[in-house]
Amino acid sequence: MSTKKNNLTTSWGAPVSDNQNSMTAGHRGPTLIQDVHLLEKLAHFNRERVPERVVHAKGAGAHGYFEVTNDLSKYTKANFLSNVGKRTPMFIRFSTVAGELGSADTVRDPRGFAVKFYTEDGNYDLVGNNTPVFFIRDAIKFPDFIHTQKRDPKTHLKNPTAVFDFWSLSPESLHQVTILMSDRGIPATFRHMHGFGSHTFKWVNEQGEGAWVKYHFKTEQGVKNLDVNLAAKLAGENPDYHTEDLFNAIENGDFPAWKLYVQIMPVEDADTYRFDPFDVTKVWSQKDYPLIEAGRMVLDKNPENYFAEVEQATFSPGSFVPGIEASPDKMLQGRLFAYSDAHRYRVGANHNLLPVNRPKAEVNNYQRDGQMRPDSNGGGSVYYEPNSFGGPTESPENKPAAYAVSGSADSVAYDHDDYYTQPGDLYRLLSEDERTRLVENMVGAMKPVAVEEIKLRQIQHIYKADPEYGTRVAEGLGLSIPQEVLR
């Protein structure tokens, strides 16, 4: 491998001092817009593919409703969560992450789980996956990570060497990689998998009191996964297997459903919890913060037109409603910008005016013009603010709750570098049969890696999570555990 030093630069040639940590206001503050390197990376990345989604290109969607089953108003003033029995219309899009629009449904890949709630206070988008964690924890690394999942620019083939090179140099990924290589890496259908908000969010009640929250959608159909050989067979014979299954189930009146649960963490616990609660590569123990039931989601209507309702559906983690706010999760902070920016590029500046994205709530603002404006464009109404002509005005009572930040504007990493406890705990929770399949899948994924150094580096991480786990992977690859790990 080359040892020549090549300085990383911006597109205008300036050297990049930190490509691993975005700049924040204080150690745990929000990401700063002055981090122009981060903005350039995210904005350029959103424009690298035309016109399909950069990620989550292949997917299926359905309409349904969310019904409140437990009063959680002591935690949040979000109206759609306020009263038991209240129903809110919603739309969901399931997807695979890395493949193109024509890729197979049954590949080993995380599944997107994006829910749009059409609330009376505007749309609320919860844009998660079927896993509670992610591969990285800072948005500045996202373009590089997804590059490894896409096709090699020279061969136009998938590149396992790039995949494991990145993962082995980003040990925070091991938790998600272990989940991906487990049975849950290939769900039987979209209906037979859980969904997660993944990130930590903030709930605020009517009194202005905050709490940190994580979302868990538990499938009522039960978790089922595909055998790797059957998944490969289906990929060739019916690459749209999951799309077909979801459509047929709803068409036949077998409406899939999920129970929504949340974990609630008091605001002050964030400073003392044994893992950083804003690190999306970590979970919160349910022993520490038990699941609390919130409601039930039911899918009961198929789209009438795939392009209009599924392909043009746009979701953003930044689409909040009063009572739900962002946390200092650095991966979430980057997504707040990147997703809406991607939609403005892919669908257009007026994507929220399309029927599938249009809020049920009345929309009043001063945005005008742009490509494909499908409404009256504000007519002859006042088009600026402040004004003397009765135009819409701000509502200070809906101001997000403040939280304190301190420290220097700097590119800083998360405090906690424990990459191994949670993936090790996960491995030890599996049955022997599940461990065997996990090891076989990991070995199978690593065998094509062209550089032995990369394999050994990844084995070191696995061994640190659990010695048995690492030893079995090493033996499957015909390699030995590096001596520096054994000391």
Automatic annotation (TrEMBL):
<feature type="active site">
    <location>
        <position position="56"/>
    </location>
</feature>
<feature type="region of interest" description="Disordered">
    <location>
        <begin position="367"/>
        <end position="401"/>
    </location>
</feature>
<dbReference type="InterPro" id="IPR018028">
    <property type="entry name" value="Catalase"/>
</dbReference>
<keyword id="KW-0560">Oxidoreductase</keyword>
<feature type="active site">
    <location>
        <position position="129"/>
    </location>
</feature>
<keyword id="KW-0408">Iron</keyword>
<feature type="region of interest" description="Disordered">
    <location>
        <begin position="1"/>
        <end position="28"/>
    </location>
</feature>
<dbReference type="GO" id="GO:0042542">
    <property type="term" value="P:response to hydrogen peroxide"/>
</dbReference>
<dbReference type="GO" id="GO:0005737">
    <property type="term" value="C:cytoplasm"/>
</dbReference>
<feature type="domain" description="Catalase core">
    <location>
        <begin position="9"/>
        <end position="393"/>
    </location>
</feature>
<dbReference type="InterPro" id="IPR011614">
    <property type="entry name" value="Catalase_core"/>
</dbReference>
<comment type="similarity">
    <text>Belongs to the catalase family.</text>
</comment>
<dbReference type="InterPro" id="IPR010582">
    <property type="entry name" value="Catalase_immune_responsive"/>
</dbReference>
<dbReference type="GO" id="GO:0042744">
    <property type="term" value="P:hydrogen peroxide catabolic process"/>
</dbReference>
<dbReference type="Pfam" id="PF06628">
    <property type="entry name" value="Catalase-rel"/>
</dbReference>
<keyword id="KW-0376">Hydrogen peroxide</keyword>
<dbReference type="Pfam" id="PF00199">
    <property type="entry name" value="Catalase"/>
</dbReference>
<dbReference type="GO" id="GO:0020037">
    <property type="term" value="F:heme binding"/>
</dbReference>
<dbReference type="InterPro" id="IPR002226">
    <property type="entry name" value="Catalase_haem_BS"/>
</dbReference>
<keyword id="KW-0479">Metal-binding</keyword>
<dbReference type="InterPro" id="IPR040333">
    <property type="entry name" value="Catalase_3"/>
</dbReference>
<feature type="binding site" description="axial binding residue">
    <location>
        <position position="339"/>
    </location>
    <ligand>
        <name>heme</name>
    </ligand>
</feature>
<keyword id="KW-0575">Peroxidase</keyword>
<feature type="compositionally biased region" description="Polar residues">
    <location>
        <begin position="1"/>
        <end position="24"/>
    </location>
</feature>
<dbReference type="InterPro" id="IPR024711">
    <property type="entry name" value="Catalase_clade1/3"/>
</dbReference>
<dbReference type="InterPro" id="IPR024708">
    <property type="entry name" value="Catalase_AS"/>
</dbReference>
<protein>
    <recommendedName>
        <fullName>Catalase</fullName>
        <ecNumber>1.11.1.6</ecNumber>
    </recommendedName>
</protein>
<dbReference type="InterPro" id="IPR020835">
    <property type="entry name" value="Catalase_sf"/>
</dbReference>
<dbReference type="GO" id="GO:0004096">
    <property type="term" value="F:catalase activity"/>
</dbReference>
<keyword id="KW-0349">Heme</keyword>
<dbReference type="GO" id="GO:0046872">
    <property type="term" value="F:metal ion binding"/>
</dbReference>
